[in-house]
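Entry for the shared binder. Reason: the reviewer on the internal report wants the predicted structure included alongside the sequence.
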Amino acid sequence: MDVVSRMLQTPLEITMADKKYRLSPLSLKARKELEAWLRDATWQAARQETDRIKSLPAISDTIKDELMKDAVNDAIRFSRMGLGCPILTSADGFVKLLLASILPNHPEVTEEWLNDHLGEIDTTELEAKITELNAQTDIGTGGEASALTDQQGKKTK
């Protein structure tokens, strides 16, 4: 299991705007909604890139066609990656993921509020949990960790 998958299944708390927020693992519904947003965002980015390429004045049409084909091929590949999609690491992707994880315990939080308060996140707890999860995963080979944890963070192996 990769680090992102472990993060999605491990209870975390963050502090933002002087309040603790408990993050929950993603429900199947939230995961599907996030994956749909990622597919849409991927294709929107591809459309913007092809429009940008079309407007480049000093490049031949042949090169433009190749660049646009590459953008579309990237979109196809990324849209099939689910939660492994690189767009998830963008600011918008992070907000969407964080919101999906916060909402089950804090339904009053909105995407707009989260965007307004994102800079107030005390990342100490989050970074410590990510470091712990990274240490449990053999990043070099993508293999399983020697010490797995359950939902409460207790070692199971």
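Summary line for the report: The chain is about 55% helix and 5% strand.
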